[in-house]
Amino acid sequence: MRRARMKTANKIKNFVPVIIILAVSLAAEIIFSNFVYLAFVAGKNDVSDYRPLGSSSFSLSEENKSFDFQCTGLKLNSISFTVKTADENALDELTTVNFYVFDENSTKSAANARSERIAVGASPRRATVYLNSLGSASGIIMDFPELEGEITVYDIVINPTYQFSFDIVRFAAVFVLLAVIYILKSGTGKQLCREITYNQAALLSCALTCMAAMLFWALCSSSETGSRIAYPLQIGAEHYQPYIQQFDAFMKGQLHFDVQPTAELLALENPYAPSERDGIYYLFDRAFFEGKYYSYFGIAPILVVYYPFYLLTSSLPMDSTVMGVFALITAVFLPLAVIEWAKLRKADIRPWFAGICAIGAYFASMALLIQRGRTPFYYIASAAGIAFVSAFAFWVLKALGSKKLFARIACMALAGVSFALGFLSRINSVLPAALIIAAFVIIYLIESIKAKKFGAFFAEMAALALPVAGAIGFSLYYNYIRFGDIFQFGTDYQLTVANASLYETGAGGIFPSLFHYFLQPFEFSAQFPFITFSYLPLSDYGKAVYIDSSFGIFALPFMLSLLLAPILYKSKKISKNGKILLSVSLLSLVVTAFLDFCLGGVIFRYTADISLPAALISAVILLEAVSIWQKECSANAVKLAKKCVLALVGVTICISLSASFMINGNLTAYSPDFYVAARDFFVFWS
């Protein structure tokens, strides 16, 4: 009987932490959802302050973007209103509304100004904004500076009556977070960390990164109408993006687009000079050669996504679907590559720590942000490039970790195919990998000569090189039959904002490329998600095409791990060949940034050419540095270092997610409901 009571008591005891976490989560959510009322409104809102404006309705347009109304003798704390577009078919969008409060002396006070982004669409939407007058307010101005079209604002209530709020999603998120922290801090959690294997760490890290990729796939696809594109095309090919135009051309047995240039364009002596095309219709940013339009984008996305999708559905994918495929490839292979490095080195590195570094590398790689690129066909090339580079890195490391020759050859062949597809997606995205693998092959050859293992070396390198040689050979032939020059990829014939044939490299691009691609910071914003791209041109760059808002890789804290490279250079644990590969890896980032700047300019999709290899190198440096510290430093110092890495990864995740939710810059639009939901989820104090 006593034993039975003890078992019952133990069972109840096991539920105590769950009950405590549940209670804390419940209390936290009640505070979060009602924070503004509890902090600013409770005790200040008299029943007599409730002021509905009755039947007042305000119609606004691009010519009349603001209105005002009186609220004499009122201590202001909030205002609610309903807004909808006049057009019943208008798409939902975000717009900014500014509020200006007049005090008792009818003076507009900047201290009482408030700006808020709200969702506007054909369906009525209710919004509440919290304001604060210094004294009794005499009037309010509502201004919609970004307004396009017509909207109606009605059902306005000053100091609306309080309504209790509760966000079940945030409550669940807080509960899970607290539960995970408790488990990790408990003896069970510590035991799990000790016993977790590399395979389990890989599975968990991939699960998290794939969830993030799918979240942003949903975010980016929310603004698209329809789920696929009918083929044959229902309207002229000129109305579609280059990948679809090129697919259509292939299906019709030709290389040029099925679009007839205008007579005015054909008559131009130099159509590549933007000034000469002024006022003439043409397909922007396509290659134009001998009276025909071509694509200068690589064809790998067409081979990997468009053709399989067409064979399965008899239609073509939307842009977000293509981006989603490559986002998933990156989300799988990038963490696996980091884990594979840790396994390959056989250093005293815990699998859980390798998993943390793998997650940090993914969020630092810009894979999420690339999904948000405006005019997606530009970013499909970047998304495909980083996806195939991730796969390439994994298969190379997998080959090096395999003991059987056949497995090594098979993995090297898959690495070669991945590199080839990356090359056929965006050449600059594989440039760092090309420089690193070239150095690796030379070192591997020398080591094979010393060990007298020529057969294995040549078998593995042949498996790696054949797909790459095939892709390069195909590209040269493809260039020749289109443009009559094996080295002409079509970039000199772009109909873009400048004459691309005039671009050139020069020493003057060294410092600007280092600043924009490595050092340029984010800017902070007062509105969610609190950071934006920065626009910081250093001078007149002359022939650089894009000088757009962007940021450098060091704005993502995980990349600061690159600065730990001297630890590896000083360590005797790292071989001479390892230090050579590290040097080439770091140099490859600088070379790629320099070429991108000189031949393109500044925009964040170019930064993505170095962000993924930089994230991989950062993860490797962290793993190696911690391994070195475990041999040379005290246990407490190593524990502190690991906590710093956890903080570094955590801050990187926050910044990466914030950047991915931005609505400015060259970012595609998404459903405003996503923005409002995300803002209300995180910004409980506003």
Helices, by number, come to: 21
Question: Percentage of helical residues?
Answer: 40-55%
The global form is: globular
Structural class: alpha+beta
- Distance linking N and C termini: 57 Å
Largest sheet: 5 strands, antiparallel
Record field, number of beta strands: 17
Question: Which characteristics define this entry?
Answer:
alpha+beta; 686 residues; five-stranded antiparallel sheet; 21 helices; 12% strand; four-stranded antiparallel sheet
What's the short version?
Helices cover 54% and strands 12% of the residues. The protein has helices at residues 2-33, 35-41, 168-185, 187-195, 198-221, 242-251, 263-266, 300-313, 319-345, 351-364, 367-371, 376-401, 405-423, 427-451, 454-483, 510-519, 565-570, 576-599, 604-632, 635-660, 672-682, and strands at 51-52, 57-60, 66-75, 78-85, 93-102, 114-120, 125-130, 136-143, 151-158, 228-230, 287-289, 292-294, 315-317, 523-524, 531-532, 546-547, 601-602.
Characterization of the model:
The chain is an alpha+beta fold and 686 residues long. It has helices at residues 2-33, 35-41, 168-185, 187-195, 198-221, 242-251, 263-266, 300-313, 319-345, 351-364, 367-371, 376-401, 405-423, 427-451, 454-483, 510-519, 565-570, 576-599, 604-632, 635-660, 672-682; strands at residues 51-52, 57-60, 66-75, 78-85, 93-102, 114-120, 125-130, 136-143, 151-158, 228-230, 287-289, 292-294, 315-317, 523-524, 531-532, 546-547, 601-602. The strands form six sheets. Strands 1, 2, 4, 7 and 9 form a five-stranded antiparallel beta sheet that branches. A four-stranded antiparallel beta sheet has the order 3-8-5-6. The radius of gyration is 29 Å and the shape is globular. The chain starts with a helix and ends with a helix.
